[in-house]
Specification:
Length: about 130
């Protein structure tokens, strides 16, 4: 899976490993934006930080949607994070720690299968 489709397309499935590794860059951008926002004095710098922050949040949401697809859940499942107190924890457990649906499901082929996908790419190893 190429980086553009990984970060900017909500179609398909990703494994836990891919989810955790792909979540690192948006999280780093988010943290950097939070740290620099306190130091930014000009309006232009704040606008650029806001754009970077929104982009990191959007890519994080797309990764959550793809991981939900691997669990055979709709992308709308990500909204469970808005349930007070337990929502974020529930989402963390579902997406970060539970194994995906084995074999193909309604969202695509198993990302851990040893067969090539539609693009001829081999899936990652368990």
């Amino acid at each position: 899976m190429d980086l553009m489709s990984l970060y900017f397309s909500s179609k398909g499935r990703i494994s836990r490993r891919t989810y955790w590794l792909a979540s690192l860059p948006p999280t780093a951008v988010w943290i950097l934006c939070e740290l620099l926002a306190d130091e930014a004095a000009s309006g232009g710098a704040l606008v650029l930080l806001a754009i970077a922050w929104l982009l990191s949040m959007a890519t994080s949401c797309i990764l959550c949607i793809k991981r939900s697809h691997d669990r055979d859940k709709s992308g709308w499942f990500v909204l469970v994070a808005f349930i007070p107190i337990v929502g974020a924890l529930w989402l963390l457990v579902e997406l970060g720690f539970l194994q995906g649906t084995p074999g193909p499901n309604r969202f695509g082929p198993d990302p851990l299968s040893a067969t090539p996908d539609a693009h001829g790419m081999m899936a990652e190893a368990r």
